[in-house]
Design goal:
Radius of gyration: 21 Å
Helix content: over 70%
Structural class: mainly alpha
Number of helices: 7
Distance between the termini: 8 Å
Shape: elongated
Strand content: 5-15%
Length: 232
């Protein structure tokens, strides 16, 4: 039996190109919107403090972290980590990112199911990610003698793909919470709201492409597995 894997190769290449484009587009948007000051003149840190306070969250710290686009919420130690250009900035992009990360803190505080599921997967994936590439490589090299290593590698890789797709509702929900709050609280003007929404849209697209890329890579290994079975 012959398994045609040509469409899979095309999808993998297309996903890689899309990832490059979206990353470039996101950086371009963030650079543009970071140069536009907020009329409210609030910094990213101040916006984060207000959003947490409005939701009755008092046990989350807001800290500054090095790097660009390194902003994230850490549920393990309950910290909103804002990059240096967001922490002290008073721009549309800073408002969007700060509120988005606080959106994750609100998810955590309200026991948002998708976030809980994703958090539960992290310990297992951190262990799997260490040896999964070696299992997949061994599986490809040993495909003429046995399919077991590759099969195990595919099962493990499928967990990372599931994680990528579980991440999508978490990220979209955090953005929706952020946009609704900054609008309701009067943090941004209608024009600034449009810019914040656009910035968060492109940020979300990076997760969409990551999920598609993970699925394409999984299908690529499945195609190799099926080809190996076809030779038997």
């Amino acid at each position: 039996m012959y398994y045609n894997s040509s469409p899979i190769y095309f999808i993998v290449i297309l996903a890689m190109l899309a990832s490059w484009f979206i990353q470039w587009r996101l950086r371009s948007k963030m650079t543009k919107y970071s140069q536009i000051g907020l009329q409210s003149n609030l910094s990213g840190k101040q916006i984060a403090e207000l959003m947490l306070a409005d939701h009755g969250i008092t046990d989350v710290r807001i800290i500054s972290t090095e790097g660009r686009l390194t902003d994230h919420y850490n549920p393990a130690d309950k910290t909103v980590n804002l990059s240096e250009e967001v922490y002290g900035a008073r721009s549309a992009s800073a408002a969007a990112i700060a509120a988005h990360e606080c959106g994750h803190a609100v998810q955590h505080a309200t026991a948002y199911a998708a976030l809980q599921f994703r958090s539960a997967m992290v310990p297992a994936l951190s262990g799997v990610s260490r040896f999964m590439p070696f299992i997949l490589l061994a599986g490809v090299l040993m495909i003429r003698t046995t399919l077991i290593p590759l099969g195990v590698g595919i099962v493990l890789f499928s967990l990372t793909t599931i994680f990528s797709f579980v991440t999508l509702p978490v990220e979209f929900d955090a953005s929706n919470r952020a946009l609704a709050w900054i609008d309701r609280r009067g943090i941004v003007t209608p024009q600034e709201h449009a810019m914040a929404k656009d910035a968060l849209h492109w940020a979300a697209m990076t997760y969409v492409v990551a999920a598609i890329s993970s699925l394409a890579t999984l299908l690529y290994y499945v195609s190799i597995f099926m080809s190996g079975r076809g030779r038997r």
